[in-house]
Amino acid sequence: MGGSYNVIIVGAGMAGLCAACEAAQSGAKVLVLEKEEAIGGSSLLSGSFMAFAGTDLQKKVGIVDTSDLLIEDMLEVGQGKNEKKLVEAYGAHQLETYQWLVENGVEFEAVRAASGHSVPRGHTIKPLQAITTLYNKALATGNVSFELEAIVKRLRKNSDGQISVVIYERDGLEYFAKAEQGVILTCGGFSKSEDMLESFAPQLHAALRIGGKGNVGDGIKLAWEHGAWVRDLPYLQGTYGFHPTASGEKKSQAHVFYKGAIIVNKQGKRFVNESISYKLLGTEALKQPETVSYQIWDQAIMNESVSGDALYDFENLYALGLIEKADSLEELAKMIDVPVVSLKETVAKYNEDIQSGGDQEFGRTTLTHTFGQPKPIIQAPYYAMVTTVAMLATYAGLEVNADAEVLNPYNEPIEGLYAAGEIAGGFHGAGYMTGSSLGKASIFGRIAAQKVVAKPVQIKENLSI
């Protein structure tokens, strides 16, 4: 324990494992510190999508997609609040990263449309398979050491001002490890820190807390001590689509609205365009009476259930008793305790608009973003799922540049310090495209490793501790 390494990585989720593999495959000696008892972090709780464009999987099913369209969609979903250079770096490296993941054994199963997609580009994985495969690949290089239940306490600079020492605790003992070329923070956000959420996102007090249990913002604090700036705090939002019984271990999530369902409140009224980002849907849902809302759909939409899919396996949620089913809208309204007349009027008005060419109330013209055509809700039986908002991931954090270097308030790199994954801010802006979280974790995890390994090895041993 302790010792000297080329690279020290803090956190063993998707970003950390991609960084570890990339660095180790370049011959670097790597230490990965993970404070939990197992690897994976919140990546194991993800919706299983990774956003890539121009892949073989897309071409196989006739989907035409490009990096330029991907970038355009991300900037539009982020309402122009994203750091454009980060989004462009994603676009520039996304296809090679997809191919790198495939070459390293990550299995992509299908391509689906989801939030923010102009065309289907959600490449589905089994998170456990991906995480386990990358972990084994890192070990197989012989260049990576993993220490679990290792809690990083502080970072320290050497006499040249470069972050070079990681102080961590394990089994009640304190250790010092030296990073010759750099430290990469990949330790997640703060969705499980009530103090930080109360400070930065009090509007989310009613949202479920289902992020990775280690996501308490400690990595952000490690960097803050050394002058790191933060981005996107004003855009902290919950994720819409969860049943109230959801927890970290039990996702209980359905995005039926992206297949054509409408969303109503306890008064049986629509309140939003259902095709927008589920982050923005979450913001509107939390404004509703008792912060309760319902997804409403019919059998035609139910038939689009996808077995085993994290977002679209409606049949599984029905089997678990989390979805109500009725032969009529009157019966359904009574089951979920919303006014019968109101729900019938809402569905009738929506159907009339959709059948005559456009949603007059909220302007819905697609299923999600610019993809798909809405359909009337007319085929019995009818379904409803009480749906709420969850704080799954924070998507705000340390400001970084396109080289994954952590920046200070003057836009200058903090020497020796890098960040990738959820801990990094500036990428998503005011919205969120499905699949871009795991996507940016893999892409910027690799970029960070490449940049660190390319740095000269330190010569001085005089450390300021």
UniProtKB/TrEMBL annotation:
Residues in FAD-dependent oxidoreductase 2 FAD-binding domain copies: 7-438
InterPro entries assigned to the protein according to its UniProt record, in alphabetical order: FAD-dep_OxRdtase_2_FAD-bd, FAD-oxidoreductase_2, FAD/NAD-bd_sf, Flavocytochrome_c, Succ_DH/fumarate_Rdtase_cat_sf
Keyword GTP-binding: no
Gene Ontology molecular function terms on file: FMN binding; steroid dehydrogenase activity, acting on the CH-CH group of donors
GO biological process, one term: steroid metabolic process
TM helices/strands, residue ranges: none
One Pfam assignment: FAD_binding_2
Keywords from the named record: FAD, Flavoprotein, Oxidoreductase
The protein's required cofactors: FAD
Family according to the record: Belongs to the FAD-dependent oxidoreductase 2 family. FRD/SDH subfamily.
Protein name, per record: Fumarate reductase flavoprotein subunit
Protein species of origin: Ureibacillus chungkukjangi
